[in-house]
Structure formats: C-alpha cells, structure tokens
Amino acid sequence: MNQIENMHVGEVEKAFVLWDMGNCPIPDGHDPLTVVAKIQMAVEKSGHVRRNGQISITAIGSKLTEIPGEDVMSRLSSFEISLKHSHLYIHDLDEWADANPPPSTMMIIDDHERIGWIASNLSDFEDAGYRILLAYPQRTTPLPRSFSKQWDWDALVTDEQETTTTTTSLVYSQGRYNDEHPLACEVCFVAVKSFEDFTAHLKSVEHEYGEWDRFACKNGVDRTIRENLPFGRSSESPTSEHYGCLVDLIGRAGVLADALNLVKSLPFEADALVLGALLGACKIHEDAELGNEVGKQLIGLQPEHYVALSTLKALGNNWAEAEEMRKVMVEAGIRKSLHIVSCLNVFKKKM
Known about the structure:
Oligomer: single chain
Helix content: 40-55%
Protein name: NYN domain-containing protein
Shape: elongated
Number of domains: 2
Mean pLDDT: 76
CATH topology of the largest domain: Rossmann fold
Radius of gyration: 25 Å
Largest sheet: 8 strands, mixed
Organism: Brassica campestris
CATH class of the largest domain: Alpha Beta
GO molecular function: RNA binding
Number of helices: 14
C-alpha cells in the first residue's frame, strides 16, 4: 500500500500545477481567471487538496508576451500565479518534489507529446507516492502508463457543468511555491518580483541574445561570424548594446580570443559597454593579462572598473599594482558594490 493510500481521512496535501501556456493556451473567449478556477477545482476533486493556498501554479512558455500576452499575464500574476519563460520544466518538478515530500500532487498541463518525453520521470514520482494529474489536447496515441487522472484540456476548461458564474470569487490566492522568484527567465537566469521588470526583460536585447545563444548552442551556430547574428528585431544597424551582449555571451563561454577579435573588428570604437563586457569575462575566467589591457582602456571611460582591474592584477600576482589601484579607488570613493557592465546582469540588479 503506497503513501497516498495510507493517508488519514481529513489530511491535506499540497499540489503543484505546471502549465505550459504555449501548448495549452486559454481558449478564445474564456476569462483567464475562470480557466484558473477550473484547474483548481480539478486538482481539488482529484484527492486530498482542499485548503486555500495549498495549490501552487506556475505558468510557463517560450513566448509569453505573445501567448498569453501581457494583459493576461498581468491578471494571472495578480492572483499569485508564478510566470516563467522556459523551454523545459522537469527540474522544476524535481525542485518542488524536494521541498514537498509525498503524499502530494503534481499536475502537468502540456502537449501530449512533451508529456510523453517525461513519462518515465512522472512514473518515478508516482511510484514514490505522488499523485500525477495530466491535462493535454486530445491525444492520438496512449501514454506508456496510466496515471492517476487525465483530462482533455479543452474539455477541462470548457466544461459548462462546473459552476463558474464568477471569476474572482472562485480563484483564490495561490501561495506561490517560490515567493523569492515569482517571475523568472530560465534562459537568461533572471528572476524578478516586479511584473513590469519581467515584461521589460522579455522584450529586451539581453533576452533576445539569451534566446539566440540558446539556439546557437543547440544548433552548432558559429557565434563569431557576424552574418549569423540576429542584430535586433528590426532592420536597424547593430548598436553598441547589441555588440556588448554578443561579447558578453562569447566571453562567458570562455572563448576570450574570439570575443577580443570581435571587439577589434567593430565598425566603431569600442565603448564602455563593450569593453566592460569583455573585462567581466576576463575576470570570470581569470585572464589577468588580457583583463589588464582592457581595464586600462576602461578606466578613463568608467571609473568603477577599477574594482575588476585591481582584482585581475591580484590574480596575476601583480600585488604592488593591485594595492596601488585600491588606493586610487579609495581616494576616488569607489566602492566594491559597483557592478561590472554585463548584459546578463542588468535585470538581476532589480531582484
């Protein structure tokens, strides 16, 4: 007899709903909160999940600004539903399971094929004592295993037999699984609490390059060939910000020689944004020699780079120069809290 069967009457378990809004969008003409209420009721009716705040919902997607769009995202976020830009989610299930031992419930709302990809993982969860609920568009082939409960997505959200005459009265506060990072972009490793910051990030150059870098890694695209790069969403010429993001991505990947060659081939003189990205990569990979060269060019542009440059001199065992650099920093009133320019850290500062 498993842990679910051993539960005493009246016990309440927690539930985690992971909803891919790209593959299972809100049907046209349906209120988002009505759909959320349907999901909540489906989870509650499946077992021992009863109490408000016990069901945590995370809505994910790879194009959230388009599907479901900013207005819908804003409404969902206002009811404490977490939003995440992501392409995969198995590790989200693992993290939640680590924090919530069985008996507990997991509900996956996604395309039937994608659920099939993680069916073995879900089987392991169920064997461990978790109740697994699934909802997906009408399927053509059966899953390799019959889980606790399965729904056709459209039937679940359009079932007129359920009492959903109002919206806000039916949808209760979720009690987010991760209150520290309710709005996150897994591609760029960015997490914020403000909805405005989240949508701004998803429309930023930083995010665009994060997505491009993911595509390049997956498809073996040469990042050092300028013709391969998507310089923005328009036909405008690439700016320093675009090049700075590219240098940051190449440099963080450890290909410092290619990053340096790109900086040298720019159609304009490298500014603090581009050089700062290269200096940051030098610090990450402890290339004191190149970092010192770049840092000297930066000092006249942005004095906060004394911090990174003094660190690199110390790494290169040039302790006398490092100490002199720190003295200059103290005299200039520069604090260590100042950040190095890095396109992937812009939105982390807002956490």
